[in-house]
């Protein structure tokens, strides 16, 4: 399963009889390890800054932390209603076949924990190299905690190589005891998939100023529709005398219990050309939605499941308020309700941290890519395929490609024919590349939003969900190309 082009590392070889001996001794040892772990202290939540619900019912909650010095990820899973065991792991495409798994199970008498893998038919096998290290477990009022560690790279061909980008996490709940690992039939268990960015950037969080203020933009206790997919829009407005401020941080505000349903959220600012925007609180695709809401498209904040609080660097903040800035804001929330829950009330949204002490630079958000439509797809059988987004001359007339200011969005020379000012005004600019980036700020940039094999391009909806600042290294190019 380490098929991601990593550099091979030297690994020990095992003879057949050593493998057989290891298998039978491990099963006996797992029970002892787990019993001892149960006597330990509860895992401390402060060690796990990243959190995401694994399943839509909220039965499983994953928390984790990343140690770059150790090149390892520390996992903590909260099982709210532990029955007879759990499967958790990773695979290239989110399938349970050819997956790297860690399994907790019971036969009704003892409990066992071990590193396993599944073959192409979905049959489970104990891994000869145990790379999931059990660190502790604990019963608590809210459920059962399981804590374990896994290195990024294990040199085990049956293990998944943890790298940057989206990781397909899989889970399954055992609802009856099993007498052995091989007796687990993954096709009959409650199971699912969650996509996350496991490797978060190791960036120092800037200190907030003493005069920072907060503003919560949330839905007014709506009832989440009993349908699988809902986009909800809510219009609010800033005070009349709201002067220019800088947003320096934002974080999610999610109604307790609705964490599995709130998929992503955005705050848009409306176009300043309109003196007023009608108040609205309803479905974004409703025929009753005021037409002017279509002009509320300037992104102020964006969050998605698995993302944490977003901090701007101390040199910059995102400007809002003041002359030339609309007072009207649109909150948009995507609810993902595959189990069709009814009657769930929600007051989720985003909390903005802002200051009137303006920072040296106004940050900007660059949106690159294509309109999200069914035609944004890769034809079958292609080994390489370029999807191109075009800007009209009306758009590119606002951009100076050759610019002495290093903080310019495009401080690079463009490939192709250029006019003397750096851009053919009547040509269309194509932003072409394997990796799309977002949230440009001075000398900083987010991790790639779109990366990986062509087959994964249709998953960009999930991959854009992890805003996180990252320093732009020498040699990284994000810019336009010109079509002749």
From TrEMBL:
Pathway: Catecholamine biosynthesis; (R)-noradrenaline biosynthesis; (R)-noradrenaline from dopamine: step 1/1. Keywords: Catecholamine biosynthesis, Copper, Membrane, Metal-binding, Monooxygenase, Oxidoreductase, Transmembrane, Transmembrane helix, Vitamin C. GO terms for cellular component: chromaffin granule lumen; chromaffin granule membrane; extracellular space. It is an enzyme of class 1 (oxidoreductase). The keyword Transmembrane applies. It is found in: Cytoplasmic vesicle, Secretory vesicle, Chromaffin granule lumen; Cytoplasmic vesicle, Secretory vesicle, Chromaffin granule membrane. It is a single-pass type II membrane protein. Its EC number is 1.14.17.1. One of its GO terms (biological process) is octopamine biosynthetic process. Coiled coil: none annotated. Its cofactor is Cu(2+). The chain crosses the membrane at residues 20-38. Residues 58-174 form the DOMON domain. It catalyses: dopamine + 2 L-ascorbate + O2 = (R)-noradrenaline + 2 monodehydro-L-ascorbate radical + H2O. Catalyzes the hydroxylation of dopamine to noradrenaline (also known as norepinephrine), and is thus vital for regulation of these neurotransmitters. This is Dopamine beta-hydroxylase.
